[in-house]
Design a protein that fits this description.
The chain has nine helices and nine strands. The protein is α/β, with parallel strands linked by helices and about 220 residues long. The protein is globular.
Length: about 220
């Protein structure tokens, strides 16, 4: 019954002109969703699939909109496919042995990467340092969940840098610039936010409760005013 309902939902959504991201727990279910025209399909039993859906898509969209050559990584085939579908030039599985060498070889003339947006620094930071381009390479840390040991010689040898970014320290002028960029992206379609559940104003209390108690969601929980 679940498979039938899932297929019907995808068909109706596509017929309505919507972009469809589907999930299933088996390869058969995922294939059925793809066969019906879903733009993306994820296995919701894989740890981290929610982050792969939301964060990976946003990062690739913004990078491509800026005219950058994008090399993305993920830990599952679903995550890799999502990155490719958003226009990434290359996608690698960062759990595969030797992936760092593959990425390095894929850069222009094998010189390394100019900029890495790091969303899980406590796992990836030391590996990032090995990929940077000499003299100009930079890692921007935008996400972290703990501590990590790094080899500072990797920074010294190539004269590269690490910096951190947080929205909370932004100035009013910077917030205005960010907002203008987001509004432009939304207007012209190169930024496509994922919406989860949309609440009417009278369900604001329920929305707040869901934000506090929910361990993960596919898309933003949105209050309609």
């Amino acid at each position: 019954m679940e498979l039938v309902v899932g297929i019907a939902a995808v068909q109706l959504a596509k017929a309505s002109g919507l972009r469809v991201i589907g999930t299933a727990s088996t390869e058969q279910g995922l294939q059925a969703i793809r066969d019906q025209g879903a733009d993306l399909a994820f296995n919701h039993k894989h740890e981290g699939y929610l982050k792969e859906i939301a964060v990976g898509i946003a990062a690739v969209q913004l990078a491509k909109a800026s005219g950058l050559r994008v090399i993305g990584t993920a830990s599952t085939e679903q995550g890799l496919q999502a990155i490719r579908d958003q226009g990434a030039d290359l996608a690698f599985n960062h759990k595969h042995e030797g992936y760092l060498k593959e990425i390095a070889n894929a850069t222009v003339n094998g010189e390394g990467i100019d900029l890495i947006l790091e969303m899980l620094a406590n796992v990836n930071l030391n590996s990032d340092l090995q990929l940077l381009k000499s003299g100009v390479g930079r890692v921007v840390v935008i996400g972290n969940r703990g501590t990590i040991d790094i080899n500072p010689r990797l920074l010294m040898a190539k004269e590269t840098t690490i910096c951190g970014v947080t929205l909370f320290s932004s100035s009013e002028e910077e917030f205005q610039m960010i907002n203008a960029y987001l509004q432009h992206g939304l207007k012209y379609g190169y930024i496509k936010p994922l919406l989860g559940r949309i609440y009417p104003l009278e369900e604001a209390a329920q929305a707040q409760s869901d934000v506090i108690s929910n361990s993960g969601t596919c898309g933003r929980l949105t209050l309609k005013i």
